Amino acid sequence: MAGRWSNDCVVAEHRDIQACAMGMDCSGNFALLAGYKCLALISLDDPADVVRSISRPYKDNIKNVQWSPIASCKELCALTNNHKVEILRWRLGEGTACVGELLGDHVSMDGHSRFVTDIDWHRLEPNIIASGAGDGWIHIWDIREHRHPATSFSSIAWVNLICWNRVNEHLLASAHAGDLRLWDRRKHSSPIQYISAHPGEVHDLDWSTVREAELVTCGGQDCSVRFFNVWRPEKPKAFLATASPVWRARHAPFGEGLVTSVSSSNNQKDPSGNNSQLLLWKRCRGRDEGPAENSKAKQPIPSAPTASPARRHSTPAASPVHTFAGHTDIVLDFQWRKNRDEPTNYELVTWSMDQSLRIWRIDPLLQKLCGYEPDVESYTELQECDSAAEISIVNNVHKEVEELSVSLGRRGVWGKEIRKKESAPLTEGEEDERSTSFVGSRSLDSGHLCSSFSTLGPPPNNFVWETKAKELGCQRESASEEVAAEAKAEEFTPCAAVEEASTVLEGTPNVKPEVEAITPNEPPAPVANLGQPTPNIPLPPPLPHLTPPVLESSTPYGGGFQDSFVPFPQTSGARFSSAGFLVCFARPSASRCPWPSTTEVMGNSNGSAFSSASSTCSSTSSYVGASIPSTPAAPSTPTPRSLSALGGASIGTFLGVVPSVAPNTVSSNSIDHHSGSSREVNMLQKSFTRNSHLGHSRSKSSQNMVKSKKNVREKKGGADNSSSSTKGWALVTIYDASKLLFLHRELGEQYIFDTKDLPGMCQTNAMVAASVGRKDLVQVWTLAGLTASCFSTPRQSSAPSSIIPRSLAAAAAAGGWMGITAGLLEDEEEQRIALDEELADSEGEDIP
Amino acid sequence: MVSLVKSIDTAHEDVIHDAELDFNGIRLATCSSDHTVKIHDLRNGSQRLIAELKGHDGPVWQVAWSHQSFGNLLASCSYDRKGADSGIHLRVDPSNRAGHAQKWSVGRSKDPSVNSIRWAPHEFGLILACGSSDGAISLLTHSGGVNWDVKKIVNAHTIGCNAVTWCPHSTLSTDMPTPRPTLIKRIVSGGCDNLVKIWREDEDRWVEETKLEGHTDWIRDVAWAKYIGSSRIVIASCSQDRRVIIWSSDNFVSWSALVLKTFDDVVWSVSWSITGHVLAVSGGDNKRGLSQFKGTYLLLI
Q: Given Cys at both, which of A726, B104, B153, B179 links B137, Cβ 3.0 to 4.6 Å?
């Protein structure tokens, strides 16, 4: 039942700030409200007072404010400012006197060419932040080196949102209108997954705090919250229908909670006068989802008419637990913090369009309703927990694991082997025993179980042991999915199993030290096994490193263009025009072919290939039935697929058509305009690459480039006369293909039209056809003449032949086809063709 | 059967990506990686540069002349890396203004690469279809003056749409009953999802009518044959997988695929002759071929 009792709620209005974004620091003590004119730092212990307000003339809205989620850098706060991402460093110490002072200069990271739409701090590594912008780029920055992004992903589409995975440190999700893309930051050439999430724009995106592959989205006007398994993107894993479009949907840090805020309150007013802006849900999973709860739900589940059949058959993903009533307008943002006095209690800090900040207390009952068990939650209690109870849990899990082992077949065997190896060295305390037993039993699941036990530090995301045990089924599901996927892959080696075990362990955020304690005991696993993902398998992360990874600034293909989705440009083509010409162009035959292919050397160089081509053609007497065998050997490497193959060079230089040096030899740093043509071009290419990489306007550099090309050509002019005089790459050839067509202008002009003397007319027309060189039509007209003379006597008296006059009229009118009077044509053209076909048919009949 | 008329040195600074003659075969528009579009007048056997159109901020992929009844508009599309405005430019008949091209700002979109533009058959009015690398197909309909209505088929092709073409207006045919069926606008598109899709306008909306699966790599071009003389519908598509496939149907419902040929290299473009029985094919190995539908094949170069 969606409760509606009043919470202990602190309200603080800040109308003067006009903030549209709120960020809370990781300790939960401060919130930063960002408005048009100023930034206001608020102490959440006394939210009515502004600790410090900094007026900054921001031209644009600050879309997003986010504090670093890592305790060691908690004074860092990032905010978006038009095209830039700015990092502010606040003094948040105990000394109340200078709290809220800005420390040092703020860092500004300028790399986007359009305004930044979203930022997200990395959850595990300090100093790493990702930003997405309207220019289609996602940059990952190390704020210590803020001049260049450490990594960049290029997507053609506008980036709405980005979100780091909570479990896998390499995985980043981004939303582009209604689509999601997943990126692995080690593989920045292209997304590793595409998900079509919503018909409209995705408004919010949140990863599950515990399940690596689970993602929740809301968006559009479709009144739904969708849960995805990102490796099964075809359809949402679960679907939650709501009464109004959802603006935010985020996981709660306890149990299976989920909080949604509604993006407009217009379409459904609550009878009590309160707008149900903010709802807390309990996520229902598979088996234990109770239908009774749904029927009791008052309003958030829409009534039957709006529910499509597809919605109905999928299980309701969550049941409403609580409504936070109070805000009178859209809740723009919300954050969770722990209550200072009672660490078991959470508080929800919300900022709404009504310019009020509220702090809601979540009492244990609500947490319990969300599937949260307070008595095993607290790690102190966990430590003191009755060992009997633990054993029962352990046994439970063992049972589950046993089942799992059976169902997984040989996979289970490996699991047991690992267990033996693992249990020997770790004998000290209960915890170790526990963890070993789990680690051993089943690599994937146990990784999580282990982590929930051995986490002693304050967990940013609480892992709930009890829930974990219950969730084993859920994990089993994902495990078996993975096994199914891997069944496709080749041999499964024990090493790989161990590898995976460690992988999973490392994937859990809180357990790093323990993992490192365990890892050395495992047999060394070849790293090669790490990177053999089939598309369905998440990329296993490598060993954790707390230092930021060395990220390649550019790859050979890097270029940094947004062009891995843009097809490689065509450099040759043939297009028919309406006037019967065939327009052809091609890169010169003498061009260096960067990809090995069977290029025939056609005729001479410099475009005379075309004349040889036409001679080939004219030597072919009749095109009907003529078939010239083509060269059988296929090239080993075909032409590249996408524009990214150019690596930032211009297509002409890439092909070696436009005079330049090979683009691969870009090495020198010296920038000297007068040091020779080759270096100049190099330099320009480089600047060109960088400019567009950073999303800058490249007009200037391109102008330079053209200029330099001219220079180059002038300089080369003396030496290589032939290539500069006729620019082979700029040649267009026009062929007259009209003789290939059924229709011909000259024929149309010269054909005569005479119904009185059909055979004579056919004869004349045959001659006309002969004069134009259409031997096939000569034959047709001759046959038509014969036919006409055969039938002329009996048909003279009766109605005129239906075939001949009509087609003759068509033939006569065909003179207009040339397009000068284009509107006339369709019928006649068509009948003209009909004539040819009919005559061709009659030819077949008559000749025998 | 095919004779060389002339070869024109367009003096582009970089490789040419598309060339098209206008309706009367008088003006040749070419576009290139040097960010320009050039128009040459070919009357009287001469070759005269009448306009060099600048304004694009990236390689220009395609040009398209409108039907002359609309005054010879030239549309060009590019990959404007600036990203801000649009890869589509429209210009009014450049030659009538003594080389001064008027630029119409149309089709501003935030999608950097517009890969393909084609005008609708003139019977439908002045409509431009554009396929872009964000996977969408945009349809710009002239609504008087300088105003254009934009309709967008979002996510028509995952990753990107590489080619669009209109269904020719010649739905009429000898063996079709009168009265003629009402004219239905259709377009065919190909994209990075290896699919050829046919879209039909259905009361103000564009709906996916058919999805043709057969290629195993990105589609590079599609061409709809003006296959007059029967009600047969024929579409040619070419792809990165080096194949050209001819799709044919009698009723828009059941389609049969015929692999015309597997070429030696990637096939970049296909183009039907006006009578729809000769197909020009060009590909990455620099060869252009002419192939006659119904099995016979002739390699031009």
A: B153
Domain span at residue A277 reads 1-15+203-372
Element (H, E) at B65: strand B60-65
Same domain, A215 and A177: no
**For B132-159, how does the pLDDT look when each residue is reduced to its tens digit (9 = 90+)?**
887 888 888 888 776 778 888 888 887 7
Q: Which residues of A touch B297 (CB under 8 A)?
A: 627-628
- The verdict on A70 and A174 lying in the same domain is yes
Q: In this structure, are residues A415 and A443 in contact, taking their beta carbons and an 8 Å threshold?
A: yes
Considering the domain architecture, whether residues A367 and A225 belong to the same structural domain is answered as yes
- Same domain assignment for residues A385 and A492: yes
Residue B55's domain comprises: 9-155
B123-130 CB contacts, 8 Å cutoff, 24+ apart:
B123/B169, B123/B183, B124/B166, B124/B169, B124/B183, B124/B185, B126/B66, B126/B70, B126/B73, B127/B185, B128/B64, B128/B75, B128/B88, B128/B90, B129/B164, B129/B165, B129/B166, B129/B187, B130/B77, B130/B88, B130/B164
Cα separation values, B185 from B121, B182, B202, B269, Å: 9, 10, 9, 23
Same domain flag for A415 and A492: yes
Whether residue B35 lies inside any domain: the answer is yes
The answer to whether the beta carbons of residues A791 and A783 sit under 8 Å apart is no
Residue among B5, B7, B268 whose CB faces A573 most closely? B268
pLDDT the model gives residue A435: 33
Number of domains into which chain B is organized: 1
Distance CA A536, CA A539 (A): 9
Residue of B nearest to A736 (CA): B3
**Minimal CA separation from B192 to chain A, in Å:** 8
- Pair A368, A379 in one domain: no
The answer on A248 and A222 residing in a single domain is: yes
User: What tens digit of pLDDT does each residue of A706-763 get?
Assistant: 444 444 333 333 333 333 445 667 788 888 777 666 667 777 788 888 778 888 888 8
Helix (H, G, I), strand (E, B) or coil at A742: coil
Minimum CA–CA partner of B30 in chain A: A732
Cross-chain residue pair B14–A710, CB shorter than 8 Å: no
Question: Parallel, antiparallel, or unpaired: how do β-strands B278-283 and A257-262 relate?
Answer: unpaired
CA distance linking residue A598 with residue A595, whole number of Å: 10
Residues A700 and A752 in one domain: no
Give me the number of domains chain A comprises.
Answer: 5
Cβ atoms B49, A613 nearer than 8 A = no
Question: Does A627 touch chain B if contact means CB atoms closer than 8 Å?
Answer: yes
Is B282 in contact with B268 (CB distance < 8 Å)?
yes
A772 at B interface, C-beta within 8 A: no
A701 phi and psi angles, rounded to 5 deg = -65, -35
- How far is residue A738's CA from residue A659's CA, in Å, rounded to a whole number? 37
Has residue B76 been placed in a domain?
A: yes
pLDDT of residue A493: 36
> What's the ipTM?
0.84
pLDDT value at position B189?
92
DSSP alpha helices (H): ranges in chain B? none
| Average confidence (pLDDT) over A403-416 | 39
CATH number (domain holding residue B50): 2.130.10.10
Q: According to the model, what pLDDT value does residue A301 have?
A: 36
In a domain, A638, yes or no: no
